[in-house]
Design goal:
The structure holds two protein chains of two kinds. In chain A, about 5% of the residues lie in helices and about 50% in strands. Chain A has one helix and twelve strands; from the N terminus they run ββββββββββαββ. In chain A, the strands form three sheets. In chain A, strands 2, 5, 6, 10, 11 and 12 form a six-stranded mixed beta sheet that branches. A four-stranded antiparallel beta sheet of chain A has the order 3-9-8-7, with no helix packed on it. In chain A, strands 1-4 form a two-stranded antiparallel ribbon. Chain B is mainly β. Chain B is globular, with a radius of gyration of 14 Å. The chains are: A mainly beta, B mainly beta.
Chain lengths: ~120, ~120
Amino acid sequence: AQTVTQSQPEMSVQEAETVTLSCTYDTSESDYYLFWYKQPPSRQMILVIRQEAYKQQNATENRFSVNFQKAAKSFSLKISDSQLGDAAMYFCAYRSAYPLNTGTASKLTFGTGTRLQVTL
Amino acid sequence: DAGVTQSPTHLIKTRGQQVTLRCSPISGHKSVSWYQQVLGQGPQFIFQYYEKEERGRGNFPDRFSARQFPNYSSELNVNALLLGDSALYLCASSLEPWDIPLNTEAFFGQGTRLTVV
């Protein structure tokens, strides 16, 4: 079974600075997708960025970028020029690309989350 | 366009009671998934439905059941409620199920906060 681990329960960053959130995962599959979701106090999960395992190039979305290390099974999120609106819970998630082929459920597997505080 | 809508937003039930949570997917989305998020944890997969059929089930007891209607809306039912069922229940919709190799994004609702006392 796949597992996702986020070892930083809380992180803090000053406005305009850069912060990196860590995520490691365990899987025996070679094809999969990785995601970072943001959950603000409104509770709605919002997709921040995603990475396809077959792509070597790290994904980037404006101020958000990832460092994907497939061999190390590591998937960190870097937030540049942090803003007050970035304060939220951040969840790393895994999804199999071919769940029927591997007998796994068609689902997202989430980590326990990292609470990001942004200070002035 | 409306996003994923869930009702009710908050709910308080007594142990042993039954509860029904509702989810309306984004227009055109045929797949609905349910997740349970206990305080301080990440969401845990409960069910996925596509075209009214169950396409995936997580490690939850038979007290949990769900169904999907012809208009693709969905209900999650929990019987014989326990204190441990207190959680945020999230619904996610997508165009197609994820057991085909398409990179389809899941859109989440704001959840139903269930408190069992």
